Amino acid sequence: MFLATTALDETWPAGGPVLFLGEWCKLYASRSRWSALDYVVCPYHWDDREALWRDYHAIVSCYEKYLAALSLELNRLHGTNHSPRYWRILIGPWLSYFIGILFDRFASLKRAATEFNISGTYVLAELGGEAPTDFFEFARDCVTDIWNHYLYGEIIKLTALIPYTEVSRSDRTDAPGAGSIADRMVRGAKYLVRVAEYYGRARRVAAIEPVFFCDTYFSAEQIRSLKSSLGQSGGEFPPGILSISAQIKSNMRESLKMAVSSNEFERVLESLLAKQIPRVYVEGYSRARSLAKTIFPKRVKRVLTANAYAANELFKVWVAEQLESGAALDVVQHGGNIGAAKWEQLEEHQLSICDRFYSWGWTDKSTKVRVASAPKLIGLKDAITGKKSGDVLLVVGSIPRYSYRMFSAPISSQYLAYLDDLLAFMAALNPEVINKTKALHYPDNYGWGVAERFRDAGFDGKVEVCRNFRERLVDASACISTFNTTTFLETLVANIPTLVFWRPEMWELREAAVPYYTRLREVGILHDAPESAAAHLNKWHGRLESWWASQDVQVAREEFCRRFAYCDSAWLKEWSATLSGD
User: Is 253 in contact with 282 (CB distance < 8 Å)?
Assistant: First the structure.
């Protein structure tokens, strides 16, 4: 069989039996092309969720090992003596993602080579695989077909797992999904203008800024009130990303030596780290440090952020150096699933870099975790009330075709089972209910063809692109959530009738979270199957408010919100006291 690793059909054979490495190869829009082939799809190695759980721990261990090794090398390269925490803040998001992604691609190829008789595969010769500029560019590229074809090709060359032939590529664009993150970011000169405006409004007189706010989820009005309560002026430092362009210097990269591998995967990893580490950590590092000092305050006592820790490279350089000068870093929970998921890569990173972690209600054994009203949820109850006669909104989640980060959720091709459940839910609704139902999907669905699949299943006209979920909720009578993420927390806080369904085996929970989700299940909010959720909606159609207002449902909702979506009406007093303390 001839192996096809991605959806780039120019690398598929003209005829003969084809082995697709995974469902990610089969773009729904290209089904006329692949459906005509004699093909099979290699089973996905992480369909075994116990194996996924074990691999997650192995990946975390590998990450810690190479974080230590790479930190030493970067200190040597740049003539610095920064702490492990410094480098964890700076390179940790990229390194942890990259190792998890590489492990997945490596394991997929290993399984294919072991279980199938593969005659060969094509590797595109012109893909240079140049290191990304920064984490932002890496996160954009790592879910595309071109980048993944390059990575599969590198693994194949380094391991000799599969016979390959290098071929020239045709003139074509990449598959959908490459630019979705970029559309939401502030770039270049416009960002610098906003930074200048921030300093103009702040009118700082203190030599050391007490609390520095950056990308916290507080609204502009909330930030002004909070800073005023702390005796500070101005607003929040503007969120955004300023790219640091730098030419690749082979001599710098070739000097990065990490001879600590103990298995075949780690040998592949070592071969690729020096090639793929973003330029901002190597060639652009000195410029990033210099620019960060120009943009950010000289000294602060405490930094508060919910998002800047990941992709804002200048912020990361600056905050890492502030910490080495005695400042403290407080991280606010980014979104739902954190605190409930059995494993969550972002949560582990956030806890490892911060001095304090502000959760949305949950606690654990870590002394870093403190409960505070969730900035993202404050004011929702009053701002969004819904409409009794409005639409029933089915919210369609979105994940890339290629795995990109590790948390207990459907991964990669498992999204197809998720889509099957959505269509089963729609099919089980009574006609009068389905007439009121709209499926909302994100503008970028990574080539899964969500709208087309709904249309082909007979639900044409029932799907719309969701560009502002909260605005859409204003006219909703109920919301059906299908991901264990922020969406259903928002509707629970707003007290809008909410149903939730997902496969529990795909959304593994930590032990401490189970009782709270069990209670939602007992009162009919949470369902384990689409048919059950549809039956509940059918039963209560026309009187959903009566069920939702019942004491059992409201008590369960309130208990759950206190644990996972906490926001108090006295949030300002609470946060002011928290940030004023030691």
Answer: yes
Residue 193 is predicted with a pLDDT of 67
Any residues with CB less than 8 A from the CB of 111 and at least 6 apart, and which? 42, 43, 45
Nearest to 273 by CA among 286, 260, 285: 260
The one-letter amino acid at 119: S
Task: Identify residue 431 by its one-letter amino acid code.
Answer: P
Our CA dihedral for 387, 391, 392, 398, rounded to 10 degrees, sits at -110
**138 vs 369: CA distance, rounded Å:** 30
- pTM for the model stands at 0.94
Nearest in space to 243 (alpha carbons), one of 189, 322, 183: 189
User: Is the model more confident about 187 or about 472?
Assistant: 472
Whole-angstrom distance, CA of residue 212 vs CA of residue 236: 8
Measure the CA–CA gap between 398 and 450, rounded to whole angstroms. Answer: 9
CA 143 to chain centre: 12
Smallest Cα–Cα separation from 418: which of 340, 532, 507, 513? 507
* CB proximity list for 249: less than 8 A, separation 6 or greater: 282, 283
CA-based nearest residue to 343, from 419, 280, 398, 405: 405
DSSP string, 526-581: EESSHHHHHHHHHHHTT-HHHHHTSHHHHHHHHHHHHHHS---TTHHHHHHHHHH-
pLDDT tens digit string along 212-234? 999 999 999 999 999 999 999 98
Backbone phi, psi, residue 333, to 5°: -50, 135
The span from the CA of 208 to the CA of 322, in Å, is 11
380: left (phi over 0), alpha (psi -120 to 50) or beta: alpha
Collapse the DSSP code of 409 into the 3-class scheme (helix H, G, I; strand E, B; otherwise coil) and give the result.
Answer: coil
Hey, how many other C-beta atoms are within 10 angstroms of the C-beta on 350? 22
State residue 221's pLDDT score.
Answer: 95
Check whether 202 has a pLDDT greater than 80.
Answer: no
Nearest partner of 392 among 481, 507, 321, judged by Cα: 481
What are the helix (H) ranges across 12-144? Answer: 31-34, 49-78, 84-115, 135-141
- In whole angstroms, give the CA distance from residue 79 to residue 73: 10
The dihedral sign for the CA sequence 446, 334, 140, 145: negative
- Angle at which helices 285-295 and 313-324 cross, to 10°: 80
List, in order of start, the domains of the chain with CATH numbers: 2-182+248-276 (no CATH), 186-240+289-378 (no CATH), 382-564 (3.40.50.2000)
Sign of the CA dihedral with 137 first, then 295, 374, and 379 last: negative
